[in-house]
Design brief:
Layout lengths: L5 E3 L3 E2 L3 E8 L22 E8 L2 E7 L9 E8 L3 E9 L4 E10 L2
Parallel strand pairs: 2-8
Antiparallel strand pairs: 1-3, 3-6, 4-5, 4-7, 7-8
Length: 108
């Protein structure tokens, strides 16, 4: 999980424009149903929550279940009414949070 999340969104948008945001985070996503070489169950370790906020206000969030693939890709739309910062967070079963930020400016 050391890789920085990949986030794609425009650097600027017109006021009121709806933009598309794409995210991808590197994560192994262990379901908790496989066994290791000694026959012991490998503990579940998945990203179970994704959230995005813009200037402190929630934009999009979702709960992820064990069937989610490794390196989850999430795409959604957001309306931009002002310049600011999108904050993204992915929360793992053990409480680990992967966080990232991207700024967006308003077109002149």
């Amino acid at each position: 999980m050391a890789d920085k999340p990949r986030i794609k969104l425009p650097k600027e948008a017109a006021k009121g424009e709806v933009i598309q945001i794409k995210t991808l985070v590197a994560h192994v996503m262990e379901s908790g149903q496989r066994k290791d070489a000694q026959g012991k169950t490998i503990p579940r370790k998945i990203i179970n929550r994704f959230a995005c906020e813009f200037n402190g206000k929630p934009v999009f969030s979702c709960a992820l279940e064990p069937a989610i693939s490794a390196n989850p890709y999430i795409q959604f739309d957001a309306r931009v009414d002002e310049a600011g910062t999108f904050k993204f967070s992915w929360t793992d079963d053990d409480g680990t949070v992967i966080a990232a930020e991207e700024k967006i400016a308003l077109k002149a």
